[in-house]
Amino acid sequence: MVPITHYLVLAAVLFMIGMFGVMVRRNALVVFMCVELMLNAANLTFLAFARQRGDDLGHVNAFFVIAVAAAEAAIGLAVVIAIFRSRGSVQIQDIRTMKH
Amino acid sequence: MSVPDVLFYIFAVCLVGAAGMVVASRNPINAAMSLVAAFFFLAGIYVLLWAHTIAVLQVLVYAGAVMVLFLFVIMLLSLSERGPRSPITVGRILGGAAALGLGVVICIVVLKLDGSAATLTGAQAMRFGTIARMGELIYGTYLFPFEAVSLLLLAAIVGAVVVAKSRI
Amino acid sequence: MESIQHFFMTSPFDADSVRHALWLIIALPALGALINGVFGRWLGRANSNLIATAAVGGSFVLALLTFWHINDWNQVFTTPFDTRPIRYAVGMDHGTWFSAGDFIVHFGLRVDHLSGTLLLVITGVGTLIHLYSTEYMSHDAGYWRYFAYLNLFVAMMLTLVMADNLLLLFVGWEGVGLCSYLLIGFWYSDPAKAWAGRKAFITNRVGDFAFLIATFLTCLVMWSFVKQANVDNFGNVTAQQAFATGLREKGPVDFSGLEALARALPVDPGHAPTGTPAVTLQTEIAQGPLSGITYGTVLTAILLLFLLGAAGKSAQLPLYVWLPDAMAGPTPVSALIHAATMVTAGVYLFCRMSFLLVLSPTAMAFVAVVGALTALFAAVIAFAQDDIKKVLAYSTVSQLGFMFMAVGVGAFWAAILHLVTHAFFKACLFLGAGSVMHGNADETDIKKLGGVKRKMKVTYVTFTIATAAITGAIPLSGFFSKDAILHAVHGTTLAGHEAITHLVWILGLLAAAGTAFYMTRVWFLTFQGDRAADARIPEEKVHESGWAMTVPLVLLAALSVLAIGYGIPLMSAGEHGREPVMENFLRPIFATAESITSAQATVAVSHEGSLAFSWILAFVIAWVATGAAIFAYTRFFPSRAGQPAPAFAKRFQTWTRDKFYVDELYDLVIIKPIRGLASLLFRVVDAVVIDTLAVRGTAWVTARVGSVLRYFQTGDTQSYAAVMALALLGGVAWALVQVLK
Predict the structure, then answer these.
(1) Cβ-defined contact of A56 to B35 (cutoff 8 Å)
(2) CA distance B17 to B35
(3) Any idea what the CATH number is for the domain that residue A16 is in?
(4) Which of B19, C467, C484, C664 is at a distance of 20 to 30 A from B84, taking alpha carbons?
């Protein structure tokens, strides 16, 4: 039996990779994919702890995270399309309206 | 080492590899395909954690719906060619370093935890993570959050249409 | 005879259906207000009139049926506070309105003989005044707004009367205050009228504040009492448990609970057989914010605060100043709100809580003296007012003073009798005044009228009947009700304040004489004699009002006469001979108060004084004053007789016309200092501290900091994310270090 800590370490590594991508990548779509990775890392943590405690409430949480992630992806991609329409680019460095 | 243990390590290595590809590949299509792979490996790990239902949902929702959405947008915006090489800024370096540091810190914390899994007996083990059990929880105790989430999805659908459409 | 009595004293309805329909009495006018307020603009004048009048009319019908229902001895009202049911009543508890810990308030309605009487007056007079208004407001563009407010007023007044607890009563209390404000300032484009509305509202706030404090104190007393009282207070264990249950279920502001408290409080201290002595008025409250103060003292304080609250709403000294200014509103409003119903709320409040009032002779003395002083003071001011509505307003203040006098000596039934008869004749007078104004191009100055009787026959006759009723020159309803009050005052002694009732009686007689004088003056100057030279329109153009205005006048005049029936001693009262119908009718309501007074001997009622003597005295006084007025105005009034009035009369007139400079006094003592303080605060606190230091200082600091921070504002999302990540890393690392340590 693999110790639960290994699952948790795997989740941490996944989260780290996702966060790294969010911090470094410039393509807004890829940034979104990395956000999905981070959400999945969180899900993995929920499930790992559910297994450790023998309590499947964590599964319910993971279920809701998936639902929220789906909503987030839909809205986020819609925003990307809208930005691409108005600016012709999905590069984050081109979108600097937060400065104003 | 039993079969599931071996499977875990295979899945884990592949998962990290696929996730790394998502971040590293310069072509968005490649990134998306790597992400699909990562989701499948993750679903395998979920099964090892006895989370059968979530594993199925993972494949259906993420690898199915969400990824199709991503690919669709990439095609729509014709982003298949390699993006421009972007300048390296202080912000990016700091951000990347912070992400790595956070990962290390979390690993340190996690390794201090007790790693043993709960021993589940007979009926409990049979029910853990099954669709029946999930249905009881979601449609029973957590009915209200469930309905709220369905409303949220509805709002997201409407919002996505409003935001993405140029003229309504 | 027997069968008629049986017919009217047997309810034709099922008790449950009446209970469940009680809320409709309030809901109908409220619905009317909603429809007129929201859709009135598009409804058209006729529809708006119809909806408003029908809503109140329907409410009147329901009130009549309810009244019939509660005439039945078998109809009972049960409350958890009391093991015995209350006869001649019906109540409906719609459950908890809100609760906060022990503080529970129910939405409960209750109709008994007291509230039933008022229900009929409110909806009956209200319907007539709505009918009258349809013509009176026929030239006003804001008619729908007017009817919405008027309907809302009726709904609120009914809430006030039907409430079975203090807090729901307070809802109605505030609601009628709001409607009063809206209707006084109905023609808000005229600043003077808008100000009159504000004056009424703000003056009422003073009283409302006292009302609230009194309510809170009442809750504290209830909670202390239930902890401290023992079985001797209640007589038996069942009653004690019932009280505790009631308090837990219905909360501390329920009227039945207060009644149970009043019944349980005054026990003889020597009565306790064993253990701790029972709680009496002299017992100190053991714990809570009031600890160390005796129940009697707190109760007196509560009642005096309620007196201040009632003084605000019922225009008694020292808060009467808003009522004369309230005449800025449309005349039917003055008739309904500022004569017949709302201003009597204070009297109703004390009658509803008669059992508490009789526990404190001090508070009773205060109420009686305030009433008597107000009655006389307002009557004297009314001598020299030239505005017909102002005279009637001061007259209302004065008559309310009479009602307070009655309440103060424990003659609650007489107060209610006067309330009812006053509602009839004063509404008739106001509507008559409105009719006079309507037919004379809105002229309100009685010196510029005169001779109106020749053109406005119906108005003249009804106004004359109502005048006779209020002066008592002819024994109509007002004669009997006012005399019932004076007779009760004369025959009652308050323990510890023996001289008070004699003083109140003399003041009351003087006020009665004053009433006869000023009312005769108004009647004489308006209707008799020749047309004034400086009248706004010549006599030929004066016209009688239409049927919608005259029908209510006739009905109200008829009621002023018919109400005699309530005041005449017809009912058998055992050894004391016969008693007036109203006293007999209201006996179930005031039974608790009566038993307390007889047990406590706080209020001694002597039946020695002969009623005939009181009647003759009242009759003589009315005629002397009426004669004096007629003599004075045929002889001395400048435009009629051409002779100047004597100098003392002139000086007296100046003083009274200027209302004894009370408004100016309030201006000097209260308003000017507040203005001064406000301008000081404006100059020092606002200009220097807030504007310069706080506002501009903040802006300056923000601008400086912002100009520095601008360099960090790159607009690059990932830089911001990096900062977040670094902060997160720092936080987690620090936490980790702390844990590892």
Answers:
(1) no
(2) 10
(3) 1.10.287.3510
(4) B19
